[in-house]
Write a structure and sequence with these properties.
Largest sheet: 5 strands, antiparallel
Number of helices: 0
Order of helices and strands: EEEEEEEEEEEEEEEEE
Structural class: mainly beta
Radius of gyration: 17 Å
Strand content: over 45%
């Protein structure tokens, strides 16, 4: 869910998943609430947050250098912050709450999370625990994730679907032919991030 909420303090862009909500204010500060907790600022070591997604009981976010971080919201987890190493700087994050994508500054696509319907475009791997480069011929400009389906728009404006598809009932990638390229810049699903 992508909504702008005006509160007594800053203005938030927020996302929710599994009863946990996170918000980003105009200064780049990250907040969380829900799951029985009240609004609380997350101390991200004085680093401004550029983009974020909520996945289960954790938040993944990009700092201004494009580094990908994970902040668990589970009290039984002893790790406070985790920096993902061996990945390039990213410019955008997209997520469904169950799987996610990051777009690198070079236009490469990286994915992680649930892949039981091949919604990450990776064969033979039902779950990808850490970001992994998705090998494909296209460069992407927009991704929309929803549970077991991913919609992607290439730099050329073509729309592709990965994951469970109505055509075959199996996980597969296919180009959606009946959408006119000139009008496609973004696609949305119920839980779309941008």
């Amino acid at each position: 869910m992508n909504v702008i909420v005006e509160m007594e303090g800053p203005i938030f862009e927020y996302i929710d998943a599994d009863e946990i909500c996170a918000g980003l204010d105009s200064a780049g500060d990250l907040y969380t609430w829900g799951g029985g907790k009240t609004l609380e600022k997350i101390d991200v070591s004085d680093v401004a947050v550029m983009d974020f997604i909520v996945e289960g009981k954790c938040i993944k976010y990009l700092d201004l250098e494009g580094k990908l971080w994970k902040y668990p919201l589970s009290e039984d987890n002893r790790i406070t912050f985790q920096l993902f190493k061996d990945v390039p700087p990213f410019q955008l994050l997209y997520g469904s709450g169950k799987h996610g994508f990051a777009l690198s500054n070079a236009g490469e696509l990286w994915g992680w999370g649930q892949n039981n319907q091949k919604q990450l475009g990776i064969e033979f791997n039902p779950f990808v625990p850490v970001p992994r480069k998705i090998e494909c011929e296209q460069l992407w400009k927009f991704i929309c994730c929803k549970d077991d389906v991913s919609l992607l728009i290439s730099q050329e404006g073509d729309v592709y679907q990965w994951g469970r598809c109505t055509r075959s009932g199996k996980g597969a990638m296919f180009k959606i032919e009946n959408i006119k390229q000139a009008y496609v810049d973004k696609v949305y699903s119920k839980s779309a991030r941008k």
